Amino acid sequence: MCPLYVAGLIGLGDRKSVQPMAARAEGVPYDRLHHFIAAGIWDAAPLKRALLGEADRLVGGLDAVLVVDDTALPKKGDRSVGVAPQYATTLGKTANCQTLVSLTLARGEVPVAVGLALFLPETWTSDPDRMVSAGVPEGLRAARTKLEIAVAEIDRVREGGVRFGCVLADAGYGSAPFRQALSARGLSWAVGISGRNKVYPAAVTMIFPVAGRGRPRKRHVPDQVSVAAETILADMTGRSVTWRRGTKGRLRARFCALRVRMADGPTQRIGAMGNQHLPGDEVWLVREERGSGERKYYLSNLPAEATLKQLAATIKARWICEQAHQQMKEELGLDHFEGRSWTGLHRHALMTMMAYAFLQSRRLAAMGRKKKNRLPTAPALDAGDPAGHPGSPQSASSATMSAL
């Protein structure tokens, strides 16, 4: 039934929910297709491993990026698993929806979705009976933030052998716990932050303050105060940077970058200033000035010798996940699933990712014929050659479809 379901997602038709897909397929009863996706007893783990292997063969490598984001599935009612009024980034407003934390592997302009995991709001995790009714696995009923889900998904993808050079995320995932979790795993990252986030100058040092009265100080304190990211860059002039060529010409904006130490270390009381975060690791602070006048801020632990163009190209590679989300919804019906269960939703999401990987393999095959097997290069983190990709797109696709 797996090939039939994937074929239904890829095939023609405006709706990609079970009933219309069964109606379009010859000799496939609706009951069988519905049982397969919603209640059938089968293990999704082999398909997940096959998807990771396919994604790595297609676009994996040290010049690939792994983009963390989330996407909303608008819903009516309150019985579908995880549905609740919550802010939907893609909609730009609060809506009644399900939120899937997504991981997208990308190289050049070719994304392949490798993870979609449901976030459960507090209205669900505080209601055990509701979770049982929706079939939420017992081990996943504890409250988890989107950041915790994302880190768990990154661990799963790495264990599956997927190769990438940098993790990217927007400001919704750019908090200190997420950055520190990535650094603890030895991963390179570039994430969005608020311009109000505090940083220290890179030259900050820890000193023993001179005590005017009372007992001598026993703890080091920074010799400089932390300031907002937007403040420390306020006097810097951005430089025009082109990071890639788009369909309408070169994509460019003005960027500036400065080495800083993020104010995300342990908290300590510092005199009249009260509790303050001590300096953390040295990182890049980057400001992007868009044509509209909007300013965006980013942090990255890329090497100190990274160029401004490398920083800009890496940061801007994040957009590709939005294309993947849109294509999976518009072409493959990611948001068309009408079931209510945890199992059904995640199986539908997995089938959608498998279908998308298959379509991307065909796209790469066509690009190979047109460009003599020259795969477009992603924003590289170094000047080295792209990592090798054993196996042709066609053979990789065949292997995955065989797993189905």
From TrEMBL:
Residue intervals of the Transposase IS701-like DDE domain: 2-250
Region (Disordered): 368-404
InterPro entries named in the record: IS701-like, IS701-like_DDE_dom, RNaseH-like_sf
Biased composition (Polar residues): 392-404
Entries under PANTHER family matching the protein: TRANSPOSASE
Protein name: SRSO17 transposase
UniProt organism field: Methylobacterium gossipiicola
Highest classification ranks of the organism: Bacteria, Pseudomonadati, Pseudomonadota, Alphaproteobacteria, Hyphomicrobiales
